[in-house]
Amino acid sequence: MRTDHALEEEAFRDPASFVNCLAQTLSAANRYLVQLLHRAGLAHLVPSHGDILVCLFAGEPITMQELAERIHRDPSTVTALVRKLADAGYVSTQKSAHDRRRIEVSLTDEGRALRCSFECISKELLKVQMKGITKDELTATGALLLRIRDNFADACQKEEEVAS
C-alpha cells in the first residue's frame, strides 16, 4: 500500500506540480514559523517582519530601498512592515544624513533585544527543515530553485518589455 507521501512523489514527476508543491512547502514553513513566534511571546510579529529584523541584525542603519532589495519585497510593502515594527517599538526611521530623500531604518534597544529569540527560532526552523535531508540534496535543490527563480525573473522581464 502506498503512503500519501509516495503518491505525492509519483505525482511530482509531473513538472506542472512543482510550483504548487513549492507553495505548499512555503505555507507549511510559515505556519510553523508563526507557531514558533507565538511560543516565544512574539505573536504580534509575522514572518515578513523577521526578514526585516534579520537584515537589520546584520547591519544598520539601512535605507528603505536597500531593505526592499535585500528582502526581495516591493518598497510599499516594506514601508508598511517597517511602520508596524516602528509602532511596536522595534525600529526607528530617520532621513539619511547623506541624502535627505532617503529614509534609514535602525533597530531600537527593544529591537536589538529580539536577536537572541530570533537566533533560537532560526535554529529550530533549520533543524526541522533539514530533518532527513543531506547537504548534497540541499545543494542540488538550492541550485534547482535558483535556476527556476531566474527563469521566472527572465520571463517577467520579457513580459515587461513586451508591455512597454
Descriptive account of the structure:
The chain contains 8 helices and 3 strands. It has 164 residues and is mainly α. The protein has a domain at 44-111: Orthogonal Bundle (Arc Repressor Mutant, subunit A), CATH 1.10.10.10. Strands 1-3-2 form a 3-stranded antiparallel sheet. A hairpin with a 7-residue loop joins strand 2 (91-95) and strand 3 (103-107). It is globular and about 50 Å long. 12% of the residues are buried.
**What is the residue-mean pLDDT, rounded to a whole number?**
90
Number of distinct helices: 8
Q: Report Rg.
A: 19 Å
Proportion of helical residues: 55-70%
* Ends distance: 54 Å
Structural class: mainly alpha
Named at the architecture level, the CATH assignment of the domain at 44-111 is Orthogonal Bundle
Could you give a short account of the major beta sheet? 3 strands, antiparallel
Instruction: Report strand order across the widest sheet.
Output: 1-3-2
Record field, number of beta strands: 3
Q: What is the strand content?
A: 5-15%
For this structure, the CATH topology of the domain at 44-111 is Arc Repressor Mutant, subunit A
CATH class of the domain at 44-111: Mainly Alpha
